Amino acid sequence: MSAAMDTESTYSGYSHYSGHSKKAHRQGRDRHKSPRSKDGSRSEKSVTIQTPPAEPLLGNDASRAEEGQDDNWGETTTAITGTSEHSISQEDIARISKDLEDSVGLDCKRYLGLTVAAVLGLLVFLTPIAFILLPQILWRDDLEPCGTVCEGLFISVAFKLLILLTGTWALFFRQPKADLPRVFVFRALLLVLIFLFVFSYWLFYGVRILDLKDTNYQGIVQYAVSLVDALLFIHYLAIVLLELRQLQPMFTIKVVRSTDGESRYYSLGHLSIQRAALVVLENYYRDFTVYNPALLTASKSRAAKHMAGLKVYNVDGPGNNASGQSRAMIAAAARRRDSSHNELYYEEADHERRVKKRRARLMVAVEEAFTHIKRLQAEEQQKAPGEIMDPREAAQAIFPSMARVLQKYLRTTRQQQYHSMESILQHLSFCITNNMTPKAFLERYLNPGPTLQYDRDRWFSKQWTLVSEEAVTSGLQDGVVFVLKCLDFSLVVNVKKIPFIKLSEEFIDPKSHKFVLRLQSETSV
């Protein structure tokens, strides 16, 4: 209990001190905020609205507490306000209503396809059983006796149906990963083929067996066995078309993010455009670094500052036309452009210097904090079991010593919107639980990681739009270009076919590896 009280007093004391020391500075900064920052926060909220509410990343109430978190968690760790998060504009309301309508349509289409596939699958599995049972129910007394061969066919039908059921469950009954704009052509063709196949068998069964009341029961069972065999071959065809056909790489695609130009290369097989787009999105969340719009505002602000420094004075009076002013603006901009590269160089050098300085301070602070928690663990082992801190309490005990330094580093590298205080505390407690080093703890913050590393509320986009000149159900071809658009950026995909490679063989005789040393008069051997 004493250790827990010391931890809470240390954490609250740090929070009280840091909150009062920065109160006046934060109030002055809030008074001088421009409307541009409000618009930027509204755009971030629009991304948050697009996220699916049914899949929270955190398993406890921390996800709800994180919604009211602001970026000043390093300075004000005692108060959490969420009034600004509930502000919403008329455009956001219209966007929400449109997304709800789209989601309802997608859900209906998804459930309709699943219902049709389930009904057809049930019909397929009940048909051989019905072929065997109907003669026993309708004209049992007129049937010929079933011998040993006929009874053996019962076992064959049972095991083949079990194999078919297992294969169908493994191939078709899987949770869908996405809602595609069009139907999967091969899957639709297989469903149509199965329907026509079963319908043909029922038609023949009704005309030749039900109407004539065939008494050869062994022939009827053999007819059901042939149906099951044909269904197994259709299942093999489905495996080839749906799984094996796309394994061999045939195309190389280049994916470029439109905002910062980050690109990746992938190899794909024979896929349709919509399924290739799905593969691109799955790899995007894993391979691409998280999209950070704050890194793109530096160049825009620099250009706006240069243009704001240009002033044109009309010395000839108001009657002069605007052509002279335009020429003066162009000439001044050209002179400013000649020296802008020096400003860019010194700005980047100063930014790198500040980042390295903040990184060094952060590494020292985290190492000191981890050495403190190790010393606490050594001391706590000698105390009673009821006084030992859990990883969450230990993380709260050492977090105030690194909070300010970590916040300054995240602000300098413009990553503060992706890391909240609650997420950092959870990561810190995770590292303490698994006995990880300070370097392992800092890996998430020193280097921007893939998109999946961060909270879903920070990056996940529910709706993607596929833009293509070709039909999305058509296969990939050389030179095809399609675009995947979301709210803030787009992914441009360029498809190139892997060239045909011709290899030739040349035999080298091992006895031919003989050499002669040539000596000249100038050489000293």
UniProtKB/TrEMBL annotation:
<feature type="transmembrane region" description="Helical">
    <location>
        <begin position="184"/>
        <end position="204"/>
    </location>
</feature>
<feature type="region of interest" description="Disordered">
    <location>
        <begin position="1"/>
        <end position="86"/>
    </location>
</feature>
<feature type="transmembrane region" description="Helical">
    <location>
        <begin position="224"/>
        <end position="244"/>
    </location>
</feature>
<keyword id="KW-0472">Membrane</keyword>
<protein>
    <submittedName>
        <fullName>VANG1 protein</fullName>
    </submittedName>
</protein>
<feature type="transmembrane region" description="Helical">
    <location>
        <begin position="111"/>
        <end position="133"/>
    </location>
</feature>
<keyword id="KW-0812">Transmembrane</keyword>
<feature type="transmembrane region" description="Helical">
    <location>
        <begin position="153"/>
        <end position="172"/>
    </location>
</feature>
<dbReference type="Pfam" id="PF06638">
    <property type="entry name" value="Strabismus"/>
</dbReference>
<keyword id="KW-1133">Transmembrane helix</keyword>
<feature type="compositionally biased region" description="Polar residues">
    <location>
        <begin position="74"/>
        <end position="86"/>
    </location>
</feature>
<dbReference type="GO" id="GO:0005886">
    <property type="term" value="C:plasma membrane"/>
</dbReference>
<dbReference type="InterPro" id="IPR009539">
    <property type="entry name" value="VANGL"/>
</dbReference>
<keyword id="KW-1003">Cell membrane</keyword>
<comment type="similarity">
    <text>Belongs to the Vang family.</text>
</comment>
<feature type="compositionally biased region" description="Basic and acidic residues">
    <location>
        <begin position="36"/>
        <end position="45"/>
    </location>
</feature>
<feature type="compositionally biased region" description="Basic residues">
    <location>
        <begin position="19"/>
        <end position="35"/>
    </location>
</feature>
